[in-house]
Amino acid sequence: MIIVSSCLAGMKVRYNGTDCPDEIVKRxxxxxxxxxxxxxxxxxxxxxxxxAEIFGGTGEDVLDGRARVMSKSGEDVSGMYVxxxxxxxxxxxxxxxxxxxxxxxxxxxGSSRIYDGSFGNRKIAGNGVTAALLKREGFAVLSENDSLLxxxxx
Length: 154
What we know:
- α1 links the parallel β1 and β2 (34-37).
- The chain has one domain (2-152).
- The longest helix has 18 residues, at 78-95.
- The protein has 6 helices and 8 strands.
- It is α/β, with parallel strands linked by helices.
- A 4-stranded parallel sheet has the order 2-1-5-8, sandwiched between helices. Strands 3-4 form a two-stranded antiparallel sheet. Strands 6-7 form a two-stranded antiparallel sheet.
- InterPro entries: 2-thiour_desulf (IPR007553).
């Protein structure tokens, strides 16, 4: 079983109420090989919601209390991101998932690159909060951009 970001499965759960469907992910869902999860919804957010970015570090830093996830208007929403990460971890463990495919650049799901916290569309190397937690727990976390995604199709 594979866990995938809900937005990659075609669900309109992104902060602005859109999706970003990936054909391979959608096929895995249709074949009942994948379970869609949105850490931000599991953390208590609705759709749409105000954009947020990690300020002062990466997802690892948020988990360790050294950085914050801030909404564009300046609200500290770190707690909801951490809650969503732990809820996602619970789903991953209960499902017996062998891999997780998450949406790159997200403050939750980014698995190698995230926005820099300036809301200036600048990206930096780093993990989102959920990706960081799952990696800490030893899970394989992929991006929709990884060429390995096609491997999971088999």
